[in-house]
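Friendly challenge for the regulars: who can give me the structure tokens for this chain first? No prize, just bragging rights.
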Amino acid sequence: MMGIRALFIATRLWLTLVGFVLLFVSAYALPGLFPLVQIGFLVFIAMIGLDAWVLFGTKTGFFARREVPDRLSNGDNNPLTIYLENRYAFRVAAEVIDEIPFQFQRRDVLFNARLGPRETQIIRYELRPTRRGEYSFGLVNVFVLSPLGLLKRRYQFGQDKQVAVYPSFLQMRQYELLAATNRLNEVGVKRIRRLGHSLEFEQVRPYTTGDDVRTINWKATARRSVATEYDAQGTSLQINAYQDQRSQPVYCLIDKGRVMQSPFEGMTLLDYAINASLVLSNIALLKQDRSGILTFSDDVGQILPADRRSGQVLKILELLYRQKTRFKETDYGSLYASVRTHIRQRSLLLLFTNFETVNALHRQLPYLRRLAKDHLLLVIFFENTELRSLLDQSATNTEEIYLKTIGEKFAFEKQQIRRGLAKYGIQTILTAPQNLTANTVNKYLELKARGLI
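First reply, four minutes later:
Bragging rights claimed.
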């Protein structure tokens, strides 16, 4: 029974059968052709039996294995591989169908391969998940054809495997590597010119060529000159060395409400905010700051206090992975009360949310102003990219003129929202979803360079 279930008919066999039917029909008009057709058909039957024997004569004629990471990165192209090994003594053709999770909604994961005797081959492909959660991979189905190509034998390998899709840790590693090698500009992060010194003193050290002469410590220089003989080249000069202020609390406040459910390229704005929060938190830890997370919707969700211990990134990753979307109206009053209760030290608050109209901002502005009074508040909201593409097109009829006018009104309101927040000293970022991470990191480095945090 297992052999029958693994037996499939190849296209070549069906085409050959159609050819024999036509030959048998033709033999009625040409009787001398009938014996030849009979002999050919018997040879064809024998070839089918031979093909079945070579394919099913061994239990382990072919081997395959899927290699998938233990977890996938949301919003990124994740590499997967399928290892193939031909254990037959002859060359085979293989059709490989991978049973990927239903969340991808793809029916085209089919690969064709040809392998010589005892040959191995690796198939590489990528999957891009757009939702966090558990994904289930099925079997790897391989349909093997012998050189005759009349029958197929199906092999099935592997078993159901559960894989978790986490926030974009691949993007986090990319930014971490570029930050370590000082190449963040490759992903759109600008080089920020440092405006003066931070207020955190590090040490007094000897002057070297290129140091700012304004940092010379004349008292330390005088004491050293008394103790040692004056150096004509000026190497006895002492300067004050400063370092970036460290251990500053940086919190990502993530809105999980209805306004963050808008889709863009298969992902919601919430998932873009979660991915950016993971990258920003890791960059903050690399800059010796403390990073924390607070999620909220109609009520405050989870709070991870700011810290910079070695396991903080894993805590942030696990917390962001478990976040579920909510479609309720956001309650900024609860957010303000929670911040007042749990965040006592002045911190940088990065608020990921979205405002579509000025009226929506005015309803929440009193709470934002109170947050900005005690902390450095950065409000991050999103451009409507579909609206932008509409505005870039030329209107050709009355309906398009009407739609474009309405679009201009909404785009103008976005700029009004930005100006309204800046009026009260609230920092803002208005960005397209695909540029969110780079723009957020840019703003964080800018605020740090200006000594605001």
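The chain has four domains: 2-43, 69-166, 169-193+246-449, 202-243. Residues 230-235 have pLDDT under 50 and may be disordered. Your move, everyone else.
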